[in-house]
Amino acid sequence: MKKFWRILKKILTIAAVLSCTALFVVVLTSAIQKQNQLTCKNLTVKIDYDSGLAFLNETEIKERINYLSGENIIGKQLSLVDFKTLEKELKKNPFVDNAEVFVDQQQNIRVEVIQKRPILRILNNDGVGYYISEKNERIPLCDKFTSHVIVALGNVEMHQNAKRDSTVQAALYHLIQFVQRDTFLNAVVDQVYVKENGEFDVIPKISGHFIHFGNGEENMAEKFERLKIFYNEGMKKVGWNKYKSIDLRYNNQVVCEKNDTAVVSN
Fold this sequence. Notes:
The protein is α/β, with parallel strands linked by helices and 266 residues long. It has helices at residues 2-36, 58-69, 83-90, 162-181, 183-188, 220-238; strands spanning 42-47, 96-103, 108-115, 118-124, 129-133, 138-140, 150-154, 189-194, 200-204, 210-214, 245-247, 254-258, 261-265. It has two domains: 42-115, membrane protein fhac (Ubiquitin-like (UB roll), Roll), CATH 3.10.20; 118-265, Rossmann fold, CATH 3.40.50.11690.
């Protein structure tokens, strides 16, 4: 008799497990079917306008999302939305640094976009213009927005000597990075003119003079340190408009040109 009850108990246990498993499968299948039927309620776009940049606007991002989806994404089944592909395609935009596309708990598709940050604007002698980003990427100019950054003029990427162009671009990028990290220099430097020989003339926001900087990569920190000392200790005494040019190309010297005379500061 005891053996009978043991067998019956095992049968009932197995039956209960099978019933629970079947119920779980039914519930899970129903949940999956319900999940697959969920549709997009709304599309929202967030762009990092707090960065001060406005290369992109929400309307064009929404239009791009709808185009990539093949239809108006609002009302589309969420299970049919390829979020990874949408992100990948948005990142192809030359102004987009990063893009995330996801769905929230209210079934809204949200798009968050980070714009590329320019640190330098190029306007060369051939009339070609573009930006260089903080990641040393090229960004096209935008007819809707102009980023107010330092401008490089003159003989930049003239397509006559690839090695020279590459060296000049690298030197410009490193120089602007250095300037941006220094509060004083960032407030002073306005433009950089690239000469035919690849040397730089720095044009400050303070009118009345320009700075012969020379090779952009050579003794850069030391040259700027001399300039800062001269500005703080020399120019404040004689006035900002006294000199036509300031020359930093000579070691441990600042050579200033006033009209037809030269003054050397050690």
